[in-house]
Each structure stands twice: as C-alpha cells, then as structure tokens.
Amino acid sequence: MLPERLTWLDAAQRSDHRFVRPADHCLYFGEFHAGGGWRASPTNDLIIDFKRSPGEIAASARSHLVQRFKERAVATVAAALARQFSRAAIETLITFVPIPPSKMPGEPDHCDRLQRTLRLAFAGLAADIRPLIRQRVSTTADHRRGTHRMAFAELLEITELDPQQLERPLRPLTVLFDDVLTSGKHLAVARRRIREALPEQAVIAVLIARRARAPLRPELARARLGSR
Fold it and tell me: For residues 118 and 129, is the Cβ–Cβ distance under 8 A?
C-alpha cells in the first residue's frame, strides 16, 4: 500500500540526496529505510519485492511465490501512479521516461520493471512512454554494491540518449521515473543527457520512495504489507 498522493521533496529532505539540486523537482510516495528489511515499513516491503531481480527470483526455493510478490508490487505501484495524473496530462502533456536498468536487454538478469509499471499504469490511454535513456554496458546495480557505488562521472560516461526515441518530439514535460531516490545520481545523469540535447525541456522526477535517514517511528517498525 502506498499513500494516495505524491509528496514534493522539500528543502530539508533534499540534503539527504547529494545530487539533487535546489532547482530540481522531485515527487515521491513513501520512505525507504535502508537496512531495515521488509519488516521495517510497508514501503520497505513493497520496494524489496518490486526490485527483486530475475536471478534472485529463480534462485529462491519459492520462486513462484516470490514472482507473485513482485507482480503484486508492480500492480500496486501502477495503481498509485494512475491516480496521480489527469487523462489530459497523460495523453497530451507528459513523456514518461524510465531510468534504465543496470543490465542490458537480452541478459538473464535484465529487469524492465519500471517501463512495465508505466505501461500498466496508463494502459488504454495514449500515454507517451519512452526508454529514452540507456546504458551502453551492463553494470552491477548500486543497491548491490554496498559502499562501493559507481561514481557520477563513470555513470555519465556510459549513459546516452537513444536517438530513435527522439525521432518525434517529446511532450512539454518529461517525467523521469525510478524506484528509490538515494543520492539522486541516476536522475542527475538522465537530466543532464536530456538537457544537453534539449536545453529547454522541462524535467521532473517521480519516485516510488526516497531513502530516509531519520530513525523509524515505533509504529512503522511494527508495520508490514501483506503476509508471507
């Protein structure tokens, strides 16, 4: 379960995300408590299921059940997204751009959960959903690197725009979509690549959750989503 409405990232919260600048506009649904596990909060439970990789699912002794949890998470996020935008905005104003996955298409651990969630959210509408941003090589996902995360310059070097996705103009507002806002590095790289090609393009970000540094409240520590 996610909050009914998105929340704007405010000035105090921005300091938790080093690559988010004062001029950047970011919205998020919930807060993710790193290291808290799925019991830490309903949002943690949702994010852990949402981010499960194909390899992780296949390796589980309960792979069918874990896959079901992942699909439930995708459906939950899609339903939450669908509530946020008017039909007119979806069909005329916005180009939705998922942040690219760490693994290239065709690799066993490639996961298109972000693009799939957008398509499910706006199914039946004339939504403009484009995999505009792409990586040239596969990498280890940041959330699996521990403290040894990829540097901004390294990520920028391997990230580019897909020229085929620019054969028709973007709509007036580009919405970058990602799961968890940590440092904000991936959003900053995507925004820079878009602005290099289209300096006047309006860009905002929508996240399922932001990483929260504050301690969990006791009632959140006892909460969980669904049952295992």
Answer: yes
Closest CA to 49 of 57, 4, 31, 91: 57
Residue 228 lies in a domain: no
- Domain-located, residue 44: yes
Q: How far is CA 101 from CA 47, 104, 109, 178, 201, in A?
A: 15, 7, 10, 10, 23
Domain total of the chain: 1
| 29 or 142: which leads in pLDDT | 29
Which strand (E) or helix (H) includes residue 209?
Answer: strand 202-211
Q: Which two tokens stand for residue 39?
A: 């019991």
SS (H, E, C) 98-167: ECCCCCCCCCCCCCCHHHHHHHHHCCCCCCEECCCEEECCCCCCHHHCCCCCCCHHHHHHHEEECHHHHC
180-203 pLDDT tens trace: 999 999 999 999 999 999 999 999
Full-model pTM = 0.90
* Domain extent for 186: 7-142+149-214
Mean pLDDT value of segment 148-162: 93
* Predicted pLDDT at 224: 40
C-alpha span between 176 and 207 (Å, rounded) = 8
Q: How many residues does the chain have?
A: 228
